[in-house]
Amino acid sequence: MDFDISADQKLFRATTREFLEKEMPLDRVRELAGSGTGFERGWWRRGSELGWNSMTVSSEAGGDSISGEGVVDACIVAEEMGRLVSPGPLLGVNVVAAALSEAANAADHADTIAALMAGEAVASWAVYEPGHGWAPLAPTVQATTDGSGYVLSGVKDRVDSGDQADYFLVTAAAPDGPAQFVVPATAPGVTVTPQQSLDLVRRFARVELDGVAVPGTGVVRPAGSIEDAVNRQIQIAVALQCAETAGAVERVFEFTVQWAFDRYTFGRPLASYQALKHRFADMKLWLEACQATTSAAAHAASQRADDADELASVAKSYVGQRATDIIQDCVQLHGGIGVTWEHDIHLYLRRATVNRVTFGTPGEHRRRLADILGV
Amino acid sequence: MTQQLSDIEDVESFRLRARAWLAGNMPRLAPGQPDSLEAMVQLGDAVWPRARELQRMLYEGGFAGICFPREYGGLGLTPAHQRAFNAECARYEMPLVLNTPTFSICGATILDMASEEQKRQHLPAVIRGDEILVQFLSEPRGGSDLAGATTRATRDGDVFVLNGSKIWSSGAYAADWALCLARTDWDAPKHRGLTMFLVKVHQPGIEIKRIKQVGGSTEFCQEFFDDVQVPASDVVGEVNGGWAVASRQLFHERNAVGGGSPYISGFTRTRRGPGTGALIEGVRTTGQSGDPRVRELVAEAHTISRVQQQLISRISAGMRTGALPPPAAAIMRLFSGESATRLSEIGVEVMGSNTVVGEAAGGPGGVVPPEASRVGEGLDYGVSFLMRQAGSLGGGSTEMARNVISERVLGMPREYAADRDVPFSQVRQGR
């Protein structure tokens, strides 16, 4: 994150880094890749004790940040997770817990929020639908009224950590317009099917809702008041996603620079060739720019700044594209080893690619930005 | 975060005071003028006397030299105060031509490297608007190999006698004093035989020729020195220690060109690549608002501009906290060159055939004086595109910036130099 973070934020970063390096080194990530699940619940619970899921939750609902800027603090965790391509539902849990805590009926969600903060429960923002791109305000999942509650039918897919989620934040078309609901994975009519995923430990799933009854207390945002809430969810999701990507790119850049010093051809290190030095200079520029725009988006989201929506799309459209450019360039600079399963760089390329195209592609965010700017 | 010192004015109170003072004292832009840069461009050569007047007004109002120390006529405030002031003065006529190089490069270098007498002689005069500064650095033999300068300064008692030529000095014809790098020892290796001088620009023996650029501007100059007498008291730093001064000057130049200088005052937009507002207006007037491809390009242009500002904040903070070394200013410089390239490309792509015509008639050979085209008008995008590479050349080429980043930020090996540790007189020179 920023160069000038506080002593408390540095401590939070250090404890998170220490925990991840000890409990989730890359060897462990590779082991999990071969297992049935992308992450272990016990591990997630222990990490959550460090405060990973409390930063973006409102203080009324029991949340607590380090610096007063909760999204910035949560981004510190995301960045560290990116450095080690950690598994875990950080994005979904933070987005959903924040959304529940900011709902008018937050009290109805108190138990869920507490379980999410403690790492006892996992939640995911189920936002994509089969056959559609990034359209968080245009659901085809239907919500029909049934007494004081609703009945949801339809399909969400590309649901982040969907196979492990206990709760889904679902946007559905209610009679008066799109509304948001929290749906337990155990509710009758919910069928979760894991999807094969590009990332080795960031798993996605398809979630079918077949006449799922949601009580009135399960409403997060009633029709008519959803747009600001969804924009807020985008702010948090994009900030966390870009921070994770920035952490991943930072780590890849570090070991690629080291490689350039260590690898010799024609009797001299790669780092001595001007043609390569200039590429490293460009990558350094892009990396710093990725970190700068991520930080700006995180601060704007934390401060609920007027331009927070704009800066979210600025960050996503920039970082999404540049991050994969940098990592692909680093693959090239590694030579043949860079495209082997054995080398770790593909773990990072997978994560950066997934982060590039989910929660809006750079192009989708540029089109959103054009709307925001009133082009 | 900037440390708030108890004895300086709070930024918000400074902002409000500046707002009130600007409203009561500085000339407002006419409704037809998009911004203060445009107002400046339209003046042509008259911009320089006008800049002196405007600077004098700022000085008398107590808003000049915001980040320069009080003992040299400044206000001794922080970059945060300067940013607050810059945000307030967008709709006023401002002496923007004095920003670079006078304040942000030459003034900053004098502050860091000159003697107490020199600082007292020049800085208050600069801040009052009485003195305009220019850099005499590049030479016709090459711009990037600055330490290979062949302008000769020969000591003769209390004076040095200067012979040779300098080039690419912006606005030299209107300046009063120059920071001039010259060779004083031809037997030392190239970096160790240079001396920096403060040279009076208008004096016997100095001939100034103006250079016309592709876009029609004649701001760049070339100077010819014929036995120019420079008092030894005008040496900046040590005799044969000029490279240390020049290095500091290059740091300030990268900072200024990259957009990170705290000595730049007034609303700042480069003329290359009109702002997003102008581009959106252009999209509307050319009926392209519904074209998704055009909408994405506008969003990309906006993203580049926002990320540039965000990067400047980040790199400045990195240098301030010591997390990044001073050469990291080259990162900002590289971004500004690359962004200028992409923005001018987007301008031509979006405005299409509109970029070849303007309201005012062009001069002979299709060369359009910049004052004839309005910022944001189609033709302005065309002229910006012709001048596209200037953003990757002026202020040190982007190739040099890439060398600096890889060698002095990432610590990679220096490029091989055939003239390293060789007496300069034995270094091979081209014709």
Name the features:
heterodimer, A: 375 residues, alpha+beta, Butyryl-Coa Dehydrogenase, subunit A, domain 1, Butyryl-CoA Dehydrogenase, subunit A, domain 2, Butyryl-CoA Dehydrogenase, subunit A, domain 3, 3 domains, 4-stranded mixed sheet, 10 strands, 50% helix, B: 431 residues, 4-stranded antiparallel sheet, 12 helices, 8 strands, 41% helix, 13% strand, globular
Describe the structure.
The complex is a heterodimer of chains A (375) and B (431). Chain A is of the alpha+beta class and 375 residues long. Chain A folds into three domains: 7-118, Acyl-CoA dehydrogenase/oxidase, N-terminal domain (Butyryl-Coa Dehydrogenase, subunit A, domain 1); 123-221, Butyryl-CoA Dehydrogenase, subunit A, domain 2 (Beta Barrel), CATH 2.40.110; 227-373, Butyryl-CoA Dehydrogenase, subunit A, domain 3. Helices cover 50% and strands 16% of the residues of chain A. Chain A contains eleven helices and ten strands. Chain A has a four-stranded mixed sheet, covered by helices on one side. A four-stranded antiparallel sheet of chain A has the order 2-3-7-6, with no helix packed on it. A two-stranded antiparallel sheet of chain A has the order 9-10. The longest helix of chain A has 36 residues, at 227-262. Mean pLDDT of chain B is 90; it is low at 361-373. Chain B folds into three domains: 11-131, Butyryl-Coa Dehydrogenase, subunit A, domain 1 (Orthogonal Bundle), CATH 1.10.540; 134-241, Butyryl-CoA Dehydrogenase, subunit A, domain 2 (Beta Barrel); 270-409, Butyryl-CoA Dehydrogenase, subunit A, domain 3 (Up-down Bundle). The termini of chain B are far apart. Chain B is built from twelve helices and eight strands. By secondary structure, chain B is α+β, with helices and mostly antiparallel strands. Chain B is 41% helix and 13% strand. In chain B, a hairpin with a 2-residue loop joins strand 2 and strand 3 (159-170). Chain B is globular. The chains are: A alpha+beta (375), B alpha+beta (431). The A-B interface holds A 2-4, 257, 260-261, 268-269, 271-272, 274, 277-278, 280-282, 284-285, 288-289, 291-293, 295-296, 310-311, 313-314, 317-318, 363, 365-367, 369-370, 373-375 and B 1, 276, 280, 283, 289, 292, 294-296, 298-300, 302-303, 306-307, 310-311, 313-315, 317-318, 320-321, 323-324, 331, 334-335, 338, 399, 401-403, 405-407, 409-410, 412-413, 415.
